[in-house]
């Protein structure tokens, strides 16, 4: 029985030796760098600025108007009648609520657009990594930052190759960076 076990173990090791002898090809890249420097990220940034800048400016103007009115109420509060003071206070409270609602809604829409853009860019980068891995026969390609890699030889750094491939895929496939400004949210 013991002889059979050792013979079986020897047979397994003979057949497993070629598997262990296969070359391990490792690639490491900087996901954060690629995600911020790729053409898709730059297009997203520009599109978001174009899409949201007018509304951001309007909200900032409304905030400045609120501050101006608050200062005005403080300065002239003693000179007003109690009724006029109460009217101004009520009007100010309404304006403040309106501003807060608009600002909150604006921030929520911006966050949703950013989250969607990050997801799209991440999928683009994953596709680029898979293309490079298959084309150049990498065994493993990983994000050095999230994998906790503190040091790696420059020969395993594929960051530029991933960036180039992501740009190529973005230019050829037209992966959407942001939903249309007129798109209705799904319920």
Can you describe what's shown?
The chain has 187 residues and is mainly alpha-helical. The chain is built from 5 helices and 2 strands; from the N terminus they run H-E-H-H-H-E-H. The protein has a two-stranded parallel ribbon. It is elongated and about 90 Å long. The termini are far apart.
- The structural class is mainly alpha
What does the radius of gyration come to?
29 Å
CATH superfamily: Skp domain
CATH class: Alpha Beta
Summarize the amount of helix as a percent range.
Answer: over 70%
Extended strand count? 2
Shape: elongated
Q: Summarize the helix and strand pattern as letters.
A: HEHHHEH
First and last CA, distance: 67 Å
Main sheet record: 2 strands, parallel
Overall number of domains: 1
- Per DSSP, the total helix count is 5
Task: Write the SSE topology.
Layout: H1 2-21, E1 26-29, H2 31-37, H3 39-76, H4 82-135, E2 140-143, H5 159-173
Parallel strand pairs: 1-2
Keywords: Coiled coil, Signal
GO cellular component, one term: cytosol
GO molecular function: unfolded protein binding
Using brief descriptors, characterize the structure shown.
two-stranded parallel sheet, mainly alpha, elongated, Periplasmic chaperone for outer membrane proteins Skp, Skp_dom_sf, Protein Binding, DinI Protein, Chain A, 187 residues
In short:
The chain has five helices and two strands.
